[in-house]
């Protein structure tokens, strides 16, 4: 656990070194296959050499985003690049979650105790160190972000409790690792969020004590509040994007001998972190 913001604990040029040092690259549940595919096919490089050579994650993010924009009409190139981009979002959030998982930061706790109900915190950081510190003072995610979440995960999804009481607000301008949305679907070269709610709908993860439904049942425990493993909880009781008339959705999940099977549930709509990457 570091006293610095989680994103400051590793510079953008040290990101993949940190990713490897945390052992995430060796975890078969931490998916990097599409990212590796992009590096092989588009950059013509060995992915493991590339990811361990001090390359800057901001530059890679920007490069992939520009590649997607240049190849709007090429489905295959879009498929490869968007898959890599989405996996980078998961990888980025996972590294932050691993770094911030531990005892509460004393620096953030001291800041939180100095704030009054008339104060606001504005941050571009995506970590939840300030969120955790504020939660000890009575701050609540229900209204504390200046937005009303569609649902909040507290060992299960529940509706937010809203009131008019004035409270500290933390405005996270680049999103947050504990904010979730639907996993993107590519339909007719359109990117949809997997649900039919307003695109601005935000789901907030707060804590869990029991395994939750997630992608392929791959629940990973052992995390403090406001942090989770690679896979956040699936979205429940949310209408999904319907298939076109005469079509049906088919999900294929490959299983390999070296990767353990998940044992939690698989219901609901697959979710992902809602952040603006460092592009």
Description:
The protein has a 5-stranded mixed beta sheet with strand order 3-2-8-5-9, with helices on one face. Strands 1-4 form a two-stranded parallel ribbon. A hairpin with a 2-residue loop joins strand 6 and strand 7. The protein contains 7 helices and 9 strands; from the N terminus they run H-H-H-H-H-H-E-H-E-E-E-E-E-E-E-E. The chain is globular and about 55 Å long. The chain has helices at residues 15-21, 33-41, 47-50, 57-70, 75-100, 106-114, 129-135; strands at 120-123, 151-154, 157-158, 169-172, 175-182, 185-187, 190-192, 203-207, 271-275. With 279 residues, it is an alpha/beta fold. It has one domain (12-275). The chain starts with 14 loop residues before the first helix and ends with a strand.
How much of the sequence is in beta strands?
A: 5-15%
Whole-number count of domains = 1
User: Which strand order spans the largest sheet, edge to edge or round the barrel?
Assistant: 3-2-8-5-9
Name the overall outline.
globular
Oligomer: single chain
Number-wise, the strands total 9
Q: Give unreliable regions as ranges.
A: none
The largest β sheet comes out as: 5 strands, mixed
Radius of gyration: 19 Å
State the helix count: 7
Please report the distance between the alpha carbons of the first and last residues: 26 Å
The helix-strand sequence is HHHHHHEHEEEEEEEE
Class by helix and strand content? alpha/beta
The helix content is: 25-40%
Please state the average pLDDT score: 88
Q: What is the fold's blueprint, element by element?
A:
Blueprint: H1 15-21, H2 33-41, H3 47-50, H4 57-70, H5 75-100, H6 106-114, E1 120-123, H7 129-135, E2 151-154, E3 157-158, E4 169-172, E5 175-182, E6 185-187, E7 190-192, E8 203-207, E9 271-275
Parallel strand pairs: 1-4, 2-8
Antiparallel strand pairs: 2-3, 5-8, 5-9, 6-7
């Amino acid at each position: 656990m570091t006293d610095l913001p989680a994103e400051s604990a590793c510079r953008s040029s040290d990101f993949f070194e940190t990713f490897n040092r945390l052992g995430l690259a060796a975890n078969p549940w931490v998916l990097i296959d599409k990212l590796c595919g992009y590096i092989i096919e588009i950059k013509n490089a060995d992915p493991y050499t590339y990811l361990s050579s001090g390359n800057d994650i901001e530059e890679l993010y920007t490069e992939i985003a520009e590649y997607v924009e240049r190849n709007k009409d090429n489905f295959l190139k879009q498929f490869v690049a968007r898959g890599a981009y989405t996996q980078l979002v998961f990888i980025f959030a996972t590294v932050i979650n691993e770094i911030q998982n531990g005892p509460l930061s004393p620096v953030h706790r001291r800041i939180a105790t100095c704030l009054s109900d008339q104060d606001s915190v504005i941050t571009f950081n995506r970590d939840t160190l300030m969120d955790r510190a504020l939660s000890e003072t009575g701050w609540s995610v229900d209204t504390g972000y200046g937005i009303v979440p569609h649902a909040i995960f507290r060992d299960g999804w529940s509706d937010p409790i809203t009131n008019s009481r004035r409270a500290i607000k933390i405005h996270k301008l680049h999103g947050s690792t504990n904010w979730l949305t639907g996993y993107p679907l590519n339909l007719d070269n359109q990117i949809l969020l997997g649900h039919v709610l307003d695109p601005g709908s935000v789901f907030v993860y707060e804590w869990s004590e029991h395994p939750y439904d997630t992608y392929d049942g791959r629940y990973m425990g052992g995390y403090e509040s406001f942090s989770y493993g690679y896979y956040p909880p699936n979205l429940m009781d949310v209408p999904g994007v319907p298939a076109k008339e005469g079509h049906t959705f088919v999900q294929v999940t490959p299983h390999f001998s070296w990767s353990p099977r998940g044992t939690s549930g698989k219901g609901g709509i697959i979710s992902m972190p809602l952040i603006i990457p460092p592009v």
